[in-house]
């Protein structure tokens, strides 16, 4: 386990910024009431075996008691670094992103299952969409009952969405909570 | 017997040599072993004499023992290697001899007409350097697309190549006779017989230092407990090649980590701060306001109005006013 160095932190924050925008500050400076200390600590990012974990300070301190080979996971895993140094967000970061997302998309109940199987979001399945989405922005996908289903990249801006035909792709799928079942081993 | 020995033995300490000119075998010894034994006996006597003479010299103390400076040798030894063969005359020398051209001594400093100063003949800031020519006048024989400066450079390069070729040819002629100059002979013997023909590169001082420090660390304990020699510098790479922040500092996040995350965060936010102002939305709001203003103006100007119309207009106005105020708040 080690903290991220500057290049890694930059890569991580850039990915998160796509989804959260200025709410990234809230993620980084979140007070955490976990642990015996009555004062609220903060959350920090730690790297263990190419996986980035979002952990509270007190948890990190206690985790130093576990050896490197024995430590499997701590806190919430938010993503992985590839061998080439690129950062990918995994599905376990959905809750964190959902709380701080800037752009959201709500799916109709009929197309929820399609998204959970790994397909992209078509215009016909779109329930609501926040304004001012630019193509290429990070978007968090919700069901109509405000349950976060996953996240992806916006293929079209909000204006263009209105002019699309019903089978046009609106959100490119990146991760969904169905992956907990499909890719259990790779998480 | 001893008197005879000390008188007649010639001891040359410069060569560590002892010579007995009056030695002769009284009778040829019967067998090889007898001969060897007699030679050994005589040899030990002579070696003893050399040792005695050595210990009689003044000595200085050294770490390994007494150090003695030997006197210069007295006997002249014959040549070890052959006399150098005279090298065959080069092509230019033959030509000069045939034409009767004599070698003239050249000055190191020459007067430069262009600048009016004394410049050196070869080297930095020399007399007739190609790069000092500002203008080359075009002749009738020149083609329009050619670069005369590039042409001069190309000609010079060709000349230099020709000179180099001639030099190598001269060396080959000399090598045929066996009269190569010694430094070239040594360089040639350093070439490997099989494999690449390139000569091994000479390591620079810095390279040698690096290699030496790597070798010094190639012990079982990484060279940590070895005594350092005089002038040996400490190693550059202390083993740590990447610097990481401490995992836990204080109660979790340390000041360094905080600083780093803040720095990265601020950089990101400032890079994207141009998106804080939503230009499209601002334009929309401005247009809507303009439209409203225009409608209000028109409403005031229109004098032809029925009884119902003003009321309707008033209602609309109030709605619009309410709507616009709401919009203002939701900014």
UniProtKB/TrEMBL annotation, chain A:
It is found in: Nucleus, Nucleolus. It comes from Vitis rotundifolia (Muscadine grape). Belongs to the NIP7 family. GO terms for cellular component: nucleolus. Gene3D superfamilies: 3.10.450.220, PUA domain. Residues 103-178 form the PUA domain. It comes from the Eukaryota. This is 60S ribosome subunit biogenesis protein NIP7 homolog. Keywords: Nucleus, Ribosome biogenesis, RNA-binding. One of its GO terms (biological process) is ribosome assembly. Interacts with pre-ribosome complex. Required for proper 27S pre-rRNA processing and 60S ribosome subunit assembly. GO terms for molecular function: RNA binding.
From TrEMBL, chain B:
It is found in: Nucleus. PANTHER family: RIBOSOME BIOGENESIS REGULATORY PROTEIN, RIBOSOME BIOGENESIS REGULATORY PROTEIN HOMOLOG. It holds the Pfam family RRS1. Residues 142-153 have a biased composition (Basic and acidic residues). Involved in ribosomal large subunit assembly. Residues 309-331 have a biased composition (Basic residues). Residues 142-168, 287-331 are annotated as: Disordered. This is Ribosome biogenesis regulatory protein. It comes from Vitis rotundifolia. The keyword Nucleus applies. InterPro entries: Ribosom_reg. One of its GO terms (biological process) is ribosomal large subunit biogenesis. Belongs to the RRS1 family. GO terms for cellular component: nucleolus; preribosome, large subunit precursor.
């Amino acid at each position: 386990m080690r903290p991220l160095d500057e290049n890694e932190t930059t890569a991580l924050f850039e990915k998160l910024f796509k989804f959260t925008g200025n709410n990234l500050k809230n993620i980084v400076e979140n007070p955490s009431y976990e642990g015996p200390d009555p004062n609220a600590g903060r959350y920090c990012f730690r790297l263990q075996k190419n996986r980035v974990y979002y952990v509270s300070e007190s948890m990190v301190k206690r985790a130093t008691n576990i050896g490197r080979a024995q430590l499997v996971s701590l806190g919430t895993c938010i993503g992985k670094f590839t061998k080439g140094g690129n950062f990918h967000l995994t599905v376990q970061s959905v809750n964190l992103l959902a709380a701080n997302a800037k752009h959201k998309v709500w799916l109709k109940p009929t197309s929820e299952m399609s998204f959970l199987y790994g397909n992209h979001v078509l215009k016909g399945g779109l329930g609501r969409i926040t304004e001012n989405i630019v193509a290429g922005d990070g978007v968090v996908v919700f069901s109509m009952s405000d349950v976060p289903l996953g996240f992806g990249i916006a293929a079209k801006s909000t204006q263009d969405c209105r002019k699309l035909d019903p089978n046009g792709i609106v959100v490119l799928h990146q991760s969904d909570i169905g992956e907990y079942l499909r890719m259990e081993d790779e998480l | 017997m001893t008197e005879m020995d000390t008188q007649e033995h010639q001891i040359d300490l410069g060569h560590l040599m002892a010579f007995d000119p009056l030695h002769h075998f009284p009778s040829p010894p019967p067998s090889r072993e007898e001969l060897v034994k007699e030679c050994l006996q005589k040899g030990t006597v002579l070696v003893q004499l050399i040792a005695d003479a050595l210990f009689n010299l003044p000595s200085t103390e050294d770490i390994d023992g007494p150090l003695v400076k030997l006197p210069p040798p007295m006997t002249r030894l014959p040549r070890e290697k052959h006399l150098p063969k005279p090298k065959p005359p080069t092509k230019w020398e033959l030509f000069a001899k045939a034409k009767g051209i004599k070698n003239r001594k050249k000055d190191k400093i020459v007067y430069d007409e262009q600048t009016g100063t004394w410049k050196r003949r070869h080297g930095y800031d020399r007399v007739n350097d190609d790069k000092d020519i500002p203008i080359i006048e075009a002749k009738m024989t020149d083609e329009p697309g050619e670069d005369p400066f590039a042409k001069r450079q190309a000609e010079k390069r060709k000349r230099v190549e020709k000179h180099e070729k001639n030099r190598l040819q001269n060396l080959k002629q000399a090598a045929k006779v066996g009269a190569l100059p010694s430094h070239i002979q040594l360089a040639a013997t350093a070439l490997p017989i099989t494999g690449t023909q390139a000569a091994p590169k000479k390591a620079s001082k810095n390279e040698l230092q690096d290699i030496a420090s790597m070798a010094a660390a190639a012990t079982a304990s990484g060279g940590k407990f070895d005594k350092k020699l005089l002038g040996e510098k400490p190693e550059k790479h202390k083993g740590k090649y990447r610097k990481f922040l401490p995992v836990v500092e204080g109660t979790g996040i340390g000041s360094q980590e905080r600083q780093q995350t803040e720095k990265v965060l601020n950089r990101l936010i400032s890079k994207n701060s141009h998106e804080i102002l939503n230009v499209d939305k601002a334009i929309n709001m401005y247009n809507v306001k303009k439209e409203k203003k225009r409608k209000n103006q028109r409403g005031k100007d229109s004098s032809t109005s029925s009884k119902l119309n003003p009321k309707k207009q008033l209602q609309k106005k109030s709605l619009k006013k309410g709507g616009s105020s709401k919009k203002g708040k939701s900014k």
